[in-house]
Amino acid sequence: MPSSSVRVGVVFGGASGEHAVSIRSASTVITALRSAANRERFEVTPFYIDLEGRWWPEAVAEAVLASGQAAENSDLPDPLPPQGFGGLPSGAASIEVWYPVLHGPNGEDGTVQGLFTLMGKPFVGAGVLGSALGMDKLAMKAAFAAAGLAQVPYVGLNAEQLTKPEERSKLLERIETELGYPCFVKPANLGSSVGISKARTRQELNEGLDLAAELDQRIVVEKGVKARELECAVIGVKTLEASVVGEIRFDADWYDYTTKYSDGLSHTLIPAPIASHHSDQVRQMALAACRALCVSGMARVDFFYDDHQDRLWINEINTLPGFTSLSMYPMLWNASGLPLETLVARLVENARE
Ligand SMILES: Nc1ncnc2c1ncn2[C@@H]1O[C@H](COP(=O)(O)OP(=O)(O)O)[C@@H](O)[C@H]1O
Ligand SMILES: [Mg+2]
Asked: Would residue 339 count as lying in a domain?
């Protein structure tokens, strides 16, 4: 390895429901950073965070990457340290740039970004504030509203309120009046459609609220719209750039967990078959969304587009979007002239800016 190469620490896994996706994303990122085009420039060390939040050095990380499966406690060296972050594993001190490939809570939400910030080390992707705002759907929506970005009507609530019968029935009435059916009930801090329900009746609304309340203190209920789903990728630090726009098509009623992660149940259209003024509008809104949330580095911004009413709403931002070779973020950049190998190199270089 030439001495001029940059030592990059890729952190993956994580105490999150999206652990398995993170392993797949990390494989893609690491393979691209070690490709012939990048081999001379980067020296990659992987680090693995197990499902209980412990950090593991390269040997464990490589074994997890090779198996493609989350490590069970029995796969890990004995004796197991206590759960949670117990300090950096060996090999971490010499890392020059950190590359978190963690989806969901405990990684995409500003926590790991806070650790890197305290260490004074550059890292790929959004900082603490942007990551935290992007993870929490209620905080995200408040910031979008403050920036004047169009989004579907919603009601935010706290699980605590649902335990008080009077408050609960007031909330149900408010949701029915302001949003109507169908509506979508979402825990504020999960991803991959986990814990989301589509409610068509009061009974389904009650069930959806109870499910969301089991998973999160903060809950969002949104008016359901019949819309196409568009996505746009953003990269950059001081100057942000937006990619071509893509569309996700699927046969299911909505883009739930099974549809997202089963082969053949969804497909992507890149570029999205929409008028060029619409894709310009999506790109502008994607950049505005990043500015509104203090997000830089990397983001995928998702939209709803009702082509009958010709209306566009911002849905959400993902600051550490899925990064398998079939994920929208790398595919959108590939179609925009940045192949995977160039993309990961650019992300690392941007972090050092
Ligand atoms: N207000 C809505 N109207 C119609 N469909 C929705 C609405 N909210 C969510 N959905 C459907 O649920 C999916 C997941 O919702 P989303 O808010 O993107 O959560 P996640 O962060 O888990 O991806 C969307 O891709 C869409 O198919
Ligand atoms: Mg989504």
From this structure: no
Same-domain check for residues 289 and 263: yes
189 lines ligand 1 (CB under 6 A): no
Cα 229 to ligand 2 centre (Å): 9
| Residue-level pLDDT at 3 | 58
Q: What is the pLDDT of residue 52?
A: 95
Residues of the chain above pLDDT 90, percent = 87
Instruction: Give the number of the atom of ligand 1 that is nearest the alpha carbon of residue 225.
Output: 3
Does a cis peptide bond (omega within 30 degrees of 0) precede residue 271? yes
Ligand 2 center to 193 CA (angstroms) = 7
For ligand 1, is residue 43 a contact (CB within 6 Å)?
no
**Ligand 2 midpoint to CA 81 (Å):** 35
For 33-67, write each residue's pLDDT tens digit: 999 999 999 999 999 999 999 999 999 999 999 99
> Can you give the CATH number for the domain in which 242 is found?
3.30.470.20
137 pLDDT more than 80: yes
Model pLDDT, residue 258: 85
Give yes or no: residues 113 and 178 share one domain.
no
Residue nearest to atom 21 of ligand 1 (CA): 191
Contact 53, 15 (CB under 8 A): yes
25, 327 Cβ separation under 8 angstroms: yes
- Higher pLDDT: 261 or 302? It is 302
Which protein residue has the closest C-alpha to ligand 1 atom 16? 193
